[in-house]
Fold this sequence. Notes:
- The protein is an alpha/beta fold and 582 residues long.
- It has 23 helices and 15 strands.
- It has a nine-stranded mixed β-sheet, sandwiched between helices. Strands 3-2-1-6-5-4 form a six-stranded antiparallel β-sheet.
- The protein is globular.
- Residues 1-11, 18-39 and 114-156 have low confidence and may be disordered.
Amino acid sequence: MASEETGQTAGGNAAARPNGDGRAPAGADEQRGDAEARTEGRHLDPRVAAMVRERMPLDEVLQQSRRYLAQTVSACLEEVIAETGESLSMMAQRDLVTRVLNAWLAEARENAGAGDAEGAAAGPAQARASTGGKTPIDPAAVARDAESGGAATDPESSRARRQRLLETKATIQPIVMERIDIAVAASLEPDELERQIAEIVSEVLVEQKLQLNRAEQKQLVRLLINDMVGLGPLEPLLADETVTDIMVNGPKQVYVERRGKLELTDVEFRDNAHVMNIATRIVTRIGRRIDESSPLVDARLEDGSRVNIIAPPLAIDGTSISIRKFSKKSITLDTMARNNNVSDALATVLKIAARCRLNVLISGGTGSGKTTLLNAMSRMIDHGERIVTIEDAAELQLQQPHVVRLETRPPSLEGLGEITMRDLLKNSLRMRPDRIILGEVRGAEALDMLQAMNTGHDGSMCTLHANSPREALTRLENMVAMSGVKLPPQAVRTQIADAINVIVQISRMRDGMRRVVKVTEVVGMEGDVITTQDLFEYSFDGESSDGRLSGSFRSSGLRPHFSARADYYGVANSLLEAMGCR
Length: 582
């Protein structure tokens, strides 16, 4: 419990330690409502807009870069907030800066009669002059570098500020933690929690005679909240929508993937124990564990992001965390066609394949986009069908109302209670599914999946790792052998040929773009060989000046073997037109 003096300084904070009777201080709901009412901050737009117009004539606006202009608007916003005492969340500040900046640019273009133009970036001296002698602050950079102590134009200055912020955090964190009740804090809305922690931090900084400016205090509050209820240094990366993958290789090396390319970040953990603490927080939320006796685990975050963790002694240089981020954007086949991941004709064929209840196998390498494509194709499933999904770590995002999601379970400390994908697949057959969707086939469950596809559960889908459709069939055959059931090779191949209708091969190409490179139809058997025919193939033509690969999705012009099935579902004409057979 905190001291009596601590209880007085915590005052009206619901996050502060509770009263002697265990109840949170009164007024929490009213404070939360006030904080939520202030988050938009739209009433500050005119004031900030007037200030930025005073800072820079309209005829100079189009000569500056958008980043520099955003820094100027942000600096003005900081001054307005300091004058008015407003409390805005980081997200509300970003929205306000964007609104004012867009209006400012539109006014400048109208004034100049110019189109879309952006000048060269202004130098540091110009930036300080146009913002009243103060260095402007970019809110996007602040959010991106919150864990690293802020962004400065001078790398040396940035490192010094980051180090000073981390040292301050290490000093005040034990004191702050004494003055709050974690259980109460975790139950608060994010904006209210941020406001109350900011009050406590301000008090502690005064008591400890530590000086931080307003922006640094905000960063410090965010650091503390991330450590308390979030994932520490990873939170800014999880909030960055341009990041698709996060890879932690020990405490001092964190990579991310943006636009298909890997980048080294300046995000760091304190030490190996800090990384392990974050890893433990991830897995305990879904009832799993990570330690020396169980150093491998697949997990998921609350937003659906997929996580793989491997700890020492298997990971020699420290705990490794790999996060495949959950996409907040809804990806459809039409979206993929607009992004040139597939062509319009190819998208049509894939829609028809899903609608006609074909058994589809999606093949590709790690990070090639298999799950994204599976989600997109699943949108063609009728809403009246019962779907059962089976995964190691649940990440599928099916939109249908009747979905039963199943997830495997690792063994307990005593080595008991493990539930495998094969166990779940066997059980799902007793659940009256119309379709079964496996997140990834990687072992003995392949035999059960083939049997399910051959026993009335047509329209099922699954993914596996392979480099080509033909290799996917070979891998499937090898995985059936892993089941321990001794079947003649011809019998296995016959079952595969009868079960699988279409194989979709997707690949992440060297420009970072994911593309469907081949669509192959399984036709049947010819002797001991599974016969196939290619329906579509991506043909590489060259490379553009911006580094993007150019090519085309070319139809084979062959009449698909499942044309009769498409005719049964009334979409044969659309299929033949997409294939170029008419």
